[in-house]
Structures are given as C-alpha cells and as structure tokens.
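[Q] Does anyone have a clean structure-token version of this?
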Amino acid sequence: MMECLVKILHMKAIKILKEKINKRIVILIENETYTEVDYFLFKSVMFPKEVISVQAFDEWFEAKSYKIAYVYAMRLLAKKGYLSTELANKLREKRFVNQIVDKIVEQLQKEHFIQDEKLISRQIEKLLQKGYGPFYIAEYCKQKKISGYAPILDQMADLSMQRQAIKNYAAKYLKELNNQQKISKLIRRGFETSLVYDVIRSLHDPHDEEMQSHPEYFPYQ
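[A] Here you go.
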C-alpha cells in the first residue's frame, strides 16, 4: 500500500498540444517539452494523461513510435522502392528520432524490403541505357548521396557496356551531327575521352571524307 502511495505522489502530468496548422503534436511532461511528432501520423494515438516517471513514458513512446514508423515505412515501400538513405530521410521528415529511424531501416533490410544494391544496379542500368557514362553516373550518385555505388558501377559499366551505350546513343540521337559534335556531346555525358574517339572512329570508314579532311577529330588513330 505504501509503495502504491509513493508512485501516486510521483505521477508526472502529460499535456498534448495538437497543432494541425503546423502539422505537429507537441508533448509536454510537467509543462516541459518532451518532443514533437507528426500530426497526421499521431493524431489518433491515445496518449496517457500521466505516468509514473519520464523513463516509463520513454518506454511507452518508443514502442508506439516504432510501430507507427514501421507502418508508415511499409506504406512508402508499397508504392516504390527506396534506398536506405532515402527512406531514412522520409522518416526524419515525419519527425521520427534517429534511434527509431535506424531501427526501422535495419529491420527492413533484414526483411529484404530495402535492397540497396538491387536499386543502385537498376538506377545505373537506366542511366547507361539513356547514354550516360561512368563519370556522369558517379557524380549523379554523389549528388543523390547514394553510398556503395562505386563497386557496382565498376562492375556494370565495363568497357564493353560503355562501348555499346555510346553506339546506341550515337545511332539514336546524334545522326545529324558531325564527328566532332558527336565526340563533344558524348564526353559531356560522362564517357572517357579516348574511348569516345575510339568508338566514333570505329563507326566510320577510315577512308571517308570527314576523317581525311579533319584528322584532328581522331587523334588516337
């Protein structure tokens, strides 16, 4: 009986301030801000009105946040694939703390709902098919903050693949350009200079008029 009385005397009051216009819910314990959460994800949550201790609320709140974050992440993944970094950013945008975000990402990776290598491979393949070279693709991955792309890019964008990508793009989009224009365009798309010269040269008869009148287009012959 005495133990129960002590607990009652130490109960902490909880206030929930719902701010729909700011898309947030502010949680206060003993009139001090505890944290903020996303309004739309947490608006239906039944928060306790008081707790024995902040630690007790921590345990309740972490478990509740994990469940909500997991469901939200699965809703996102049902629509499209996400890299682990992309999904983590989506969760942080909804005010989930790093501890919850890291746990969710780790769990979804274990369950194979997040497969970074597969998504990176798919993205690199798309860029190669669009006629982009390894330099462009590497810069694209850096700007998108995609980690772990380098070994996948090295494997996928070998010389054979690059040659084919150059030929396909040149045949489809560069027919009306002269060789120097083709070369400049392909170098800007991220292909190595000597490789571009080599492939463009291979597409022409070495005795054709342009090669004879403009040998500077083909310094590597």
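[Q] Thanks! Anything notable?
[A] The longest helix spans residues 54-79.
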